[in-house]
Protein 1
Amino acid sequence: MADVLDERSISLAGAQRVLAAALALAEKMDIQVSVAVAGRAGDLKAFARMDGASMLSGETARRKVYTVAMTGRSTKEFGSILKSEMSEEPELFHGMIGIDGIIAIEGGVPIRLKGALVGAVAVSGGSSPQDQEIAETAARAITA
């Protein structure tokens, strides 16, 4: 077993490309959002809050991107899993949501290359489906 892991993470240039793709789609949809892009460990690499986007959207995007990095799942999928377990294990739901920075609202998605998690992108400020669509589209901006 190796003493050191060789794991890939999104670069600043890649994070900026994802950020630009998200902002471009938000402009096209005529909504003001905040966008956060993080490396695989949840380290913030790029962030923007569009003029007119709420202050709360910035913090929400940051928490969504952290949640994706910590779980390796979209916030939509994470929320669905928690909801499905609610009746059998309510303590799991409350315990997970109680972890500082964890949030289960649509709009955060993993960025993967060849199946490996390299980062995350999250959007907040539109409706949940709009945030999700923008994040999914932006995540596809990374190719290598």
Note: The first strand starts at residue 34 and ends at 39.
Protein 2
Amino acid sequence: MEIRVHVPHAHAGDALADHARRRLLYVLMHRQHRVRRIEVRLGDTRSRRGLHDHYCVIQLQFTDAPALTVVDGGEDLYDVIDRAADRAGRLASERLRRSADAGGPAHRFPRAADRPAAFAMP
């Protein structure tokens, strides 16, 4: 799983990129083997009215499911990253479950009834 974080401001970039990586690794911990690449874009809207809202765009590309994009915004960039990462984790679970239900690889342990007799528990 490859994680790329794009931060326009170099002075705060390392801390924000590290925070985004840690949050995404935690949220996607059980689905890492099915995620090919993650792109995170962080930025500031800098509106004319003096508002400094920040945004976070997370794009997930899976090995066996359609891509997923999550966008969030707010005043505190750390909170924005947390909300976007949590939403990405929930939507990734749902998307991967749907692809498995639709005939994609399930990546689940077989049920006891589906195991060969040689592997049956006594």
Note: The chain is about 35% helix and 25% strand.
